[in-house]
Amino acid sequence: MADQLAPDQSAPTARLTTRPQWLALQQHLVAMKPRHLRELFAEDARRGERMTAEAAGLYLDFSKNRIDDETLRLLFDLAKACGLRERRDAMFNGEKVNATEQRAALHVALRAPAGSRMNVDGHNVVPDVHAVLDRMAAFTDQVRSGEWKGHSGKAIRHVVNIGIGGSDLGPVMAYEALRDYSQRDIDVRFVSNIDGTDFIETTRRLDPAETLFVVCSKTFTTLETLTNAHAARAWCLQSLGDEAAIARHFVAVSTNAEGVAKFGIDTANMFGFWDWVGGRYSMDSAIGLSTMLAIGAEHFHAMLAGFHAMDEHFRSAPLERNLPVLMGLLAIWNNNFLGADTVAVLPYAQYLTRFPAYLQQLTMESNGKHVTGDGKPVDYQTGPIYWGEPGTNGQHSFYQLIHQGTRLVPCDFIGFCQPLNPLPVRGDGADEAADQHDLLMANLFAQSEALAFGKTVAQVEAEGTPARLVPHRLFEGNRPSNTILAERLTPHALGALVALYEHSVFVQGTVWNIDSFDQWGVELGKQLAIRTANELTGANEPDLAHDSSTNTLIRRYRKTRTP
Ligand code: F6P
Fold first, then answer.
1. Is residue 10 part of a domain?
2. 77 & 206 share domain
3. Measuring CA to CA, which residue among 489, 55, 106, 501 is closest to residue 302?
4. Atom of ligand 1 nearest to the CA of 279
5. What's the pLDDT tens digit per position in 296-344?
6. How far is the CA of 283 from the centre of ligand 1 (A)?
7. Beta strand spans in 4-126 (E)
8. Which of 5, 146, 161, 533 is deepest in the core (most CB within 10 A)?
C-alpha cells in the first residue's frame, strides 16, 4: 500500500468534512443537541442494558452519552467510509501505517501468543518478541530470588527505572496499578525529569550496592534519560568505586545497541525491542522490565494476555459490539459534533493514580495533529485534551466545573467490582456488611447519574430551597459519560484496559485521517533547548539571537544562576 494514511481505494477519498456521512451526522446533530438524557432514558426503559458491550473482561456502559440508535448508525457509517476496517487490518498486517516515519505500528505483536505469526517486511516477529520475554523472565527470576548479586555481593532491593515519556509513563503507571501483585521487598522507583531533584530525591537513602538501574530509551539519545543515566553511573561509581560494578548495577532497554554500548552498558545486559514499537505503545515490550521485576513474569504474561484478548476483540468483533470502536466513535461525536474539548478520565481505584497521566501521552501525543496523512491542514478538531484524577479525590476538587461549569466535559469512569484491599466501614451507624469499596463505587455510580440526570428546578424547589438559591442549586445534567467496569484490578484487566484505549485512539486517528504514530511536535522544543543550554553557562555572554523576550529571560537567568 503506497500511502497507508489514505483510506482504502474502495472508500471515497473525500475530505472528512465533506463526506456525506459527516454531513449526515451534522444534520442529525440538529435533532440530537436539544435532547436530554432524561428523555432518552425515559423513552427506552432498557437503554441502560442495551447500550452496553463487553469484551476481554471489561464491561462498557455507553448509555449515558447523548446519542440514540441513529447516532450510532451514522457513526458506524462514517467509520466504514473512512476505511476503519481496512486500516485496522493494515495495522495488524504489519503494514507501514506510520507513514511519515515509514514504519509499521505493530504493538499488537508484543502480546501475540508464542507460535502465532505477525509479519513486518515478511519477517515473523513473534519469535523475536518471545525470545526477549524469555530473557526478561530469566533475569527477573534471578533478581527476585536474590541470585543476581550486586558488585559487592548483596542482593538487589531497589530498582530505579530511568526513562521519560513512553519509557517512563507506562512502566510507572503499571507499577502503581499492579502494586498489589508486586514483591514487596523489591522497591521500584522512577526517575524521568532532567530536574536534578528527581534523581537526588529518588536515590536518597538508597544503598548503591543494592540498587539496579534500568535505563530505558528506545533511541538511547534522549537528553533527559542519558543525563540521568550518567548521574546514576557517577552515583554508583562514587560508592562502589569500580567500573566493573556497572555490569551488575545497570541494564538497558533500547532499540539502539550501539548507543547502549557507547554509554558503557554491556549489550549482554540489554533487552531489545524494535522500531515498529512506538514509545507510547511500548509498556508491554522490554520497556516493561521494571514492571516484570516488580510483579514477576507470570503476572506480566497475564497482563499481555489481557492486551491480546482486547486486540482479538478489536480485530474481529462487529463494529456495533466493538469496545474500542464504540469508545473511539463516541469520542468523535463528543469532540467534533457536541464540541467538547476535553475528556476527563476518572478511575475509581487508587492504584490507577497514574493512569490519566499515562493516557495523556497515549492520546495527545498520538492524536494531537494538525495535518492529515498527506500533509493537508485539517478543518476539524483532532485529539481532545485528556486529564483526570482518581475518584473520589477529584470530586472534592474539579468536579464542580464538570457538574455546573459552562463547558461540556465528557467523562470516562473506571471501576472494579471487587476490592484488592477490603476495609470494613467503621463508625457509628455503619452498615456492618459495608466495605469502604462499596462507598467508593457508590460514589462512581452517583457521579455518572448526577452528571446525566442533574436536578430540575422543580426538584430543587421541592426541597424547600429559597428562590434566590434555586439557580445555584440547579444541575442541568445532560453531561455524557462512559463507565468501564471490570471484576477486579488484575494484570489481565489492566492489559485489556490499556489496549482498549490504544485502539480507541487508533479509531479516532483513522477517522481524522492523521498519523497517530508519529510525534514531530516534540522536536522543535528539543532543538531549541539544546541550543539554549549552551547559552546559559560560560563566563562571557554569547551573542543572543532569540526574540527580545527570550533574550531578556536568558540574560536575567545568567545574572542570577548559581555560579
Ligand atoms: O517526547 C518524545 C518521545 O520521543 C516520546 O515519544 C518517547 O516516548 C520519549 O520521547 C522517550 O524517547 P526514548 O524512549 O527514545 O528515550
1. no
2. no
3. 489
4. 8
5. 999 999 999 999 999 999 999 999 999 999 999 999 999 999 999 999 9
6. 12
7. 52-55, 58-61, 119-120, 123-124
8. 161
Same domain, 351 and 490: yes
Catalytic residue among 33, 123, 262, 526: 526
99 within domain boundaries: no
- The Å distance, Cα 548 to ligand 1 centre, comes to 31
**Same structural domain, 348 and 250:** no
* Cβ(225) – ligand 1 distance below 6 Å: yes
- Whether 365 sits among the annotated catalytic residues: the reply is yes
CB 170 near ligand 1, within 6 Å: no
Ligand 1 atom having least distance to the Cα of 216 = 14
The count of domains in the chain is 3
| Measured distance CA(438)–CA(538) in Å, rounded | 60
- For ligand 1, mutation pick of 214, 369, 516, 519 (most atoms within 8 Å of CB): 519
Residues 337 and 257 reside in one and the same domain: no
Query: What are the pLDDT digits (tens) for 193-238?
Result: 999 999 999 999 999 999 999 999 999 999 999 999 999 999 999 9
The C-alpha atoms of residue 77 and residue 86 are separated, in whole angstroms, by 14
pTM: 0.96
Ligand 1 pocket residue status of 98, Cβ below 6 Å: no
Distances (CA, A) of 44 to 48, 361, 483, 537: 9, 38, 19, 68
CATH number of domain containing 255: 3.40.50.10490
Specify whether 450 is located in the same domain as 532.
no
Q: How far is the CA of 243 from the centre of ligand 1 (A)?
A: 28
Q: Both 326 and 403 in a single domain?
A: yes
Of 176, 224, 365, 389, which residue is the catalytic one? 365
**533 CB-contact burial (10 Å; exposed 0-12 / middle 13-18 / buried 19+):** exposed
Q: How far apart are CA 404 and CA 426, in angstroms?
A: 33
254 lies in which domain range? 119-301
- Which residue has the least CA distance to atom 3 on ligand 1? 165
The residue whose CB lies within 8 Å of the most ligand 1 atoms, and thus the one to mutate among 103, 107, 222, is 222
Q: What is the CATH number of the domain that holds 532?
A: 1.10.1390
Distance CA 196, CA 201 (A): 8
Domain boundary among 301, 335, 359: 301
Whether 8 maps to a domain, the answer reads: no
Q: Is the CB of 166 under 6 A from ligand 1?
A: yes
% of residues, the chain, pLDDT over 70: 98
267 & 332 share domain: no
Q: Are 216 and 281 members of one domain? A: yes
